[in-house]
Amino acid sequence: MSLTMEAILQQARPVLPVLVIEDVGSALALAQALHAGGIRVLEVTLRTPRALEAVSIIRRELPDLIVGAGTLIHAEQFLEARDAGAQFAVSPGCTERLALAAENVQMPYLPGVLTPSEVLLALEYGYRSLKLFPANGTGSVKMLKSLKGPFTGIRFCPTGGINVDNLLTFLRLPNVACVGGTWIAPADLVKARAWDQITQLASEACSLAASLDAPR
Ligand code: 3PG
């Protein structure tokens, strides 16, 4: 069954971890630690030399997780990501070439936007689930509120500058599907192989959001 980006973000709520995997030997343990903390979807950024290998390993060993490839900034990377087993792709911005590349490989795609014109560009290609990047602080909360009016039905995943302190402010917005971020798997903890602490960060975020999302 093929997934839609909308369904993937729904699964990802509250947090889509943005992973920078320097040591491919740690990929599986890192994904397991996040999974144990309640994470169901993650994004491996193609910022490190063996990131695609990390995608394949996590996909093979943890079939319950949904694994995407992030930081796609060249059209050719879409095919590479798909061949490595990535189930969706994420970019920090959106260009016509990237939007077409995603369409060509038929992969769910989360393009990045920061302005109404960029939302319109993404919409022209049929993308209605968008990454708001960089979402730094209160300015982005105001912007998301403003975007709600003209862009009915568009769902955002604000990323960049999100942490446990501002997580709920974003998740409360009706046009926010989930948030993304690296804070949940910080480089120092990954390097130290502090898997329990990473599990704790994930479960802290999930519990916070559960209080928000619980039926009233
Ligand atoms: C991304 O690529 O989405 C960002 O690097 C994540 O930003 P953060 O480190 O502030 O979470």
Overview of this protein structure:
With 216 residues, the chain is an alpha/beta fold. The chain has a single domain (5-213), classed as Aldolase class I (TIM Barrel). Helix content is 44%, strand content 15%. The protein has a 6-stranded parallel β-sheet, with helices on both faces. It has a 3-stranded parallel β-sheet with strand order 6-7-8. α5 links the parallel β4 and β5. α2 runs parallel beside α10. It starts with a helix and ends with a helix. 3-phosphoglyceric acid (3PG) is lined by residues 18, 71, 92, 133, 159-162, 180-183.
- Report the CATH superfamily: Aldolase class I
Please give the domain count: 1
Mind telling me which CATH architecture this is?
A: Alpha-Beta Barrel
Beta-strand content: 15-25%
| Overall mean pLDDT | 95
CATH fold category name:
TIM Barrel
Secondary structure: helix percent: 40-55%
Total of DSSP H or I helical runs spanning 4+ residues: 10
Q: Give the N-terminus to C-terminus distance in angstroms.
A: 32 Å
- CATH class descriptor: Alpha Beta
Strand count, sense and closure of the main sheet?
A: 6 strands, parallel
Instruction: Report the bound ligands by name, code or SMILES.
Output: 3-phosphoglyceric acid
H and E order: HEHEHEHEHEEHEHEHEHH
Unreliable runs: none
Radius of gyration: 16 Å
Which overall shape is indicated by the principal axes computed on the Cα atoms?
A: globular
Assembly state: single chain
Q: Based on DSSP secondary structure assignment, what is the total number of beta strands?
A: 9
